[in-house]
Amino acid sequence: MPLYSYEAKDPSKGCEKCRNGFDTVQPLAEARLERCPDCGAEIFRVVKAPALRHSKTDLHYRAKRAGFNCLKKVSKGEYEKMY
Ligand SMILES: [Zn+2]
Q: What residue numbers bound the domain in which 74 lies?
């Protein structure tokens, strides 16, 4: 089953789980989550670029910490994270 990542649209409204993003395994047929199952905050699905799929590298985290967090809108409510 595919692994999806979600993140709060507004991290200040999210709980600890969705503020930092979380991964969840969902069957393909299952509708994408729109709200955090824990706190109900609005979330969006992060589509991981294949090149980044197998490594959460230091670079990845450094870029994120530096605030370099560019989101490309893929479709309604779905964003691709560009680093
Ligand atoms: Zn939450």
A: 3-82
Q: Average pLDDT, stretch 14-40?
A: 91
What is the overall mean pLDDT for the chain?
78
Q: Where are the alpha helices (DSSP H) in 1-83?
A: 16-19, 50-53, 58-65
Give CA–CA dist 53/68, Å, rounded.
Answer: 18
Residues with CB under 5 A from ligand 1 (ion): 14-15, 17-18, 36, 38-39, 41
Domain count of the fold of the chain: 1
Kindly state the percentage of the chain with pLDDT values over 70: 64
What does the pLDDT read at residue 44? Answer: 94
